[in-house]
Design brief:
This protein is an alpha+beta fold. It has 2 domains: 129 residues, FdhE-like domain (FdhE-like fold), CATH 3.90.1670.10; 151 residues, FdhE-like domain (FdhE-like fold), CATH 3.90.1670. The protein is 39% helix and 12% strand. It contains 11 helices and 8 strands. Strands 1, 2, 3, 4, 5, 6, 7 and 8 form an 8-stranded mixed sheet that branches. α2 runs parallel beside α10 and α7 packs across α8. The longest helix is centred in the middle third of the chain and has 23 residues. The N and C termini lie far apart (46 Å).
Length: 340
């Protein structure tokens, strides 16, 4: 099966049009909603699982997301960055809570064991041995697994345990980010700001899973990149590659367009934005086409699109910690933290 060729035309984004017309200012950062983030992801995964070839795995991740929701609601206070640490990060254009370097509190391991306990009654028999191994794993091994995940290192990573370890890290970083914003955000001075590398999360420096268009304020279809770790979303104008920032050779692909099952009058809610300059792509999900899309869930459910794009030589910019495949590219200037 071959991908269709689509014309690449430079258009003004909705954000650019609004700015030129004196429209409402763009909301630069959207923080995750602790009360609903993982519950909504779980609900969307169950919706997508119906009749899907990956039904069993989508249901498993839905159950895992529900466990994340329960554990996040009761996760206690965590050590947060100081005002001076936040200011120092801002001064050099780095995230205040860098995934590769932040000194993780043992609370993330407690969250992992709580997730395992929440998930165990619903987990399939094939995963019970992995769950038991995680209950019994020592702290050093868990830290090594976390380092591998957060630095994009496949060597030494236990792929069976990886989604569960990643689930605990997502819960931990979601709480870190929201608690930091709650404590330090003040009028005219926010805890998180734009960083030097705008392709990475301004809160934790992780890669996005996908981007999402949202209907916010006076501007329709604002595009946000959705962090694979902390679920923060940061604004990036449309018609711009989220990997190399070029806007010259972009095209959009979808499974429906490739298979000829959708026309211009009913465009797909999930597309891949491909870049002819750098050879990367990132999926984009559209709330104006389906109000229930969720970046991590819809990314998982559209794995076939990744497989087709990989056959053309395109490389994936996005990262979904619930399904690792290929060789993840570590973020620039982010060497392993050196934990043992």
């Amino acid at each position: 099966m071959t991908l269709g060729t689509q014309a690449t035309i430079k258009l003004m984004s909705p954000e650019e049009i609004a700015a030129g017309a004196g429209g409402a200012p763009v909301q630069e950062l959207r923080l995750p909603e602790v009360a609903t983030l993982f519950a909504e992801r779980s609900l969307r995964l169950r919706q997508l699982a119906a009749g899907h070839a990956m039904r069993d795995y989508l249901i498993f991740i839905a159950d895992l997301s529900q466990a994340q929701h329960a554990v996040l609601q009761r996760l206690g206070e965590l050590p947060l960055p100081t005002p001076s640490e936040i200011a120092a990060a801002r001064a050099v254009g780095r995230p205040p809570l860098p995934a590769a370097d932040w000194p993780r509190d043992p609370a993330w391991q407690a969250a992992l064991r709580d997730i395992v306990d929440e998930l165990a009654p619903r987990a399939p028999a094939a995963t019970q041995a992995t769950l038991q191994a995680l209950r019994e794993a020592d702290a050093d091994w868990l830290e090594t697994q976390a380092d591998c995940l957060l630095n994009g290192v496949m060597l030494g990573l236990d792929l069976a345990a990886a989604p569960l370890v990643a689930a605990a890290l997502q819960v931990y970083w979601t709480r870190l980010v929201t608690a930091t914003a709650s404590r330090f955000d003040q009028p005219g001075q926010l805890a998180f700001a734009r960083i030097e590398d705008e392709t990475l999360c301004p809160c934790c420096g992780s890669r996005p899973t996908a981007s999402i268009t949202r209907q916010i304020g006076d501007v329709a279809g604002q595009r946000y990149l959705h962090c694979s770790l902390c679920a923060a979303e940061w604004h990036m104008v449309r018609i711009q590659c989220p990997h190399c920032l070029s806007g010259l050779k972009l095209a959009y692909e979808s499974l429906e367009a490739i298979e000829g099952t959708v026309g211009p009058a009913s465009p797909s809610a999930v597309q891949a934005e491909t870049c002819g300059d750098c050879g990367h792509y990132l999926k984009i999900v559209h709330t104006e086409r389906d109000p229930f899309v969720e970046p991590a869930a819809d990314d998982l459910a559209s794995l076939t699109l990744d497989l087709l794009l990989s056959e053309t030589g395109l490389r994936r910019h996005g990262l979904n910690l619930m399904l690792l495949f290929g060789e993840p590219e570590p973020p620039p200037d982010s060497p392993p933290s050196g934990r043992s």
